[in-house]
Amino acid sequence: MRSYTEVMGQMYWPNDVGEIPYVPMRENQLNARLLGAGSCLNSWIANDSASRVQMFNSQVGQSLVLKDSTPRVIQTGMEREYGKYTFKKVFKEESRVVRNIEKYPRRAGDRSIKLNPVTTIIYEECKTHSFNVLHLERYHTQHQSFGFKYRHNTKIQQMLSPNAPPFPPGTILADSPSVRPDGEYCYGIETRVAFMSIPQVIEDGVVVTDEYLKRLTSTGTEERRFSFGKEFFPLNLYGDKDNYKPFPDIGDKIRDDGLVFALRQYDPINAAVEMTPEALMQPDYIFDKLTYGEPGAEVYDIDVFHDPQQKKSPTPIGMAVQCQKYFNLKREYHEEILKEYSRLRKQYGVHLKMTPEFRQLVVEAQATGPRPDGKRVQLTRRAEPLDDWHVTLKYAYDIIPTIGYKVTDTHGGKGVICDIIKVEHAPRDIFGRVADMILDGDSRIKRMNKGSVWEHYLLDSVWHARNYVVQLYGSGSDQEVDAAYAFLFRYYYVVSPYMGKLVGDLHRRAEATGDIKAFKRGRVEAVINDKIYIHLPPDSPNIGAEGIRAVQNFFPIARGPLTYKPQSSDDFVTTVNPIRIGGLYILLLEKTGGDWSAVSLSKLNHYGLHAKLTNADKFSNPCRKTPVRLAGEAENRLFASTMGGPATAEFLERSGNPELAREINKNVHRGYAIDGFPLSIVDREKIPGNKRRGLVYVNHINYCAGMRLTYDKICIRGV
């Protein structure tokens, strides 16, 4: 038998771990430095098609930050590199804290705020002697719908004071919840997977358990804006007769109906009825200007903009008490920033160095307060002057995936959740393990991403290997620890030569220091208390079938039939063939299916054509009034080939002819019976066909050019 040194050159193998299994090594010519960051997250890139590898590269950027993500069992090493460059709050240079200023500090009385959303840290970069600013926020948001809650380093934050010594470069104040304390980036969740041929998982279909979906919880973050004062007035949606509260405070929840705020236009004729205290607490769902958000979401930040220098506010007295509270606190926050800026200016004079971030903050603070020259600052948004009061409200909520959400693995194997089953009905193997997810095994071959099959098997092997280590460990005597360690070390070598080398180097170091017993026990007990982790970079030898065959020969594992409750049966059944419950690392993508897509009549422009929603209309209803595009160019060709021309024309006209759409809507509400044939709901003698707006405009243009399109009867097969 060839020695480990003969096989792997300079890699070290101790002498006391038993006989080394011979594993022929196949050269892997992949260079990790040339693969790209996304590709290097996949150990089996050599076994996946190039298109699937590229697909995963794009999906990494589309994955959501999970609240309870887990580290990968089989790691490439790139996870640590990703962890270095996540969104975080960090001192990039050696820094000395100058001042900490809370945006909304907690205080007693009516001005109390439940939670401070932001703490601003003014600090000096010791190397350049420039003054910079860092905002410690509760949530990170750079997406219109998703974000995450920072994991704050409370130990470091308690030391943030002017009397503290300078902080070294790289000091992290707050980090992503996906980054572990050791710096590893966890961008998904380890999932128990069964490849089965059930109806729900054909091609892209994915079946998951209800308990597993809770583990895929991510964080949604959104904001809503509204202005009032000159023409519209806010309704008292969150208060009572003695407390006028148009919107939820920081720390409050949005109403169950999702209504964040409502504005009512002042009408002098109906003011006696519409502007009473009781009427202002009840929204008019037809005439009021409504803005919806996520029901039950928690508000975490509020910004209020107002011009205090105007002679007279148009807002009635009492309606802006809540806004005034946040505006006054924001002004006090800016005043503290200006005080610190004045102190630094006085101390350093013309030699004061400021970063662009700090300079921008100072300018913003100066804009909200009175100017020394007495001039007013006109606040605008998108080149339009702001109303009397302008409020920006930010909120966060948990997102639990459901049917329609997209998931993927590290091999570009995306899928859509199409069925949710109870965990007690999910497939269970002979070892008591329950599958979190069911996938179509044939799709692995069709998509040419066989690396997912190898990962699936190896994660099953790792689970069995850990159980075997627990069995060998027994009561924890020195002999049992040696036996468990010997197996573990040999298993590392077979699965990943690189992993064997890493552990071998640590073993040799422990031998040199005389701590070999403690080292062995520590490695074994770490596996028992957690799991076996494998370092398997994409340029490892024996990636794919050769490596799996070597693992099978060294440590064969059993599998058996699965027992589950199918969708079409009330009883549990057992599969005829044995099926393995292995593992895959699953990512949740931003392609969600939780939005409403059914509307009555879509919004039309002044030409009668379908129009996109403006920012003002986008959140004015619980659902979006823009229908999902059903028929594109390819779909229309399919419709014409299967249904025929007249049926396709009828299908397209129902959404493109405003008069016809209104007639259908009226007939539906009148309770007209539909006898099973869709055309029966429209009286074509009353409303003739071929009046779709797009077609009308084309005919009109042609007519002006002296042309007219006519329809000719075509004889087909004697018809």
Summarize the structure.
Helix content is 30%, strand content 18%. With 719 residues, it is of the alpha+beta class.
Keywords, separated by commas or semicolons:
about 725 residues; alpha+beta; Dna-directed Rna Polymerase Ii 140kd Polypeptide, Chain: B, Domain 6; five-stranded antiparallel beta sheet; 19 helices; about 30% helix; disordered N terminus
Q: Could you please say which CATH topology of the domain at 4-75 and 194-211 and 414-584 applies here?
A: Dna-directed Rna Polymerase Ii 140kd Polypeptide, Chain: B, Domain 6
Q: Give the spatial strand order of the biggest sheet.
A: 10-22-11-21-20-26
Structural class: alpha+beta
Pick out the low-confidence regions.
1-12
- CATH class of the domain at 4-75 and 194-211 and 414-584, named Mainly Beta
Tally of DSSP helical segments: 19
Strand content: 15-25%
Helical proportion? Answer: 25-40%
Q: Label the CATH architecture of the domain at 4-75 and 194-211 and 414-584.
A: Beta Barrel
Q: Overall pLDDT, averaged?
A: 87
Total beta-strand segments: 26
Largest pleated sheet: 6 strands, mixed, barrel
Give Rg in angstroms.
33 Å
Distance between the termini: 83 Å
Q: In one word, what is the shape?
A: globular
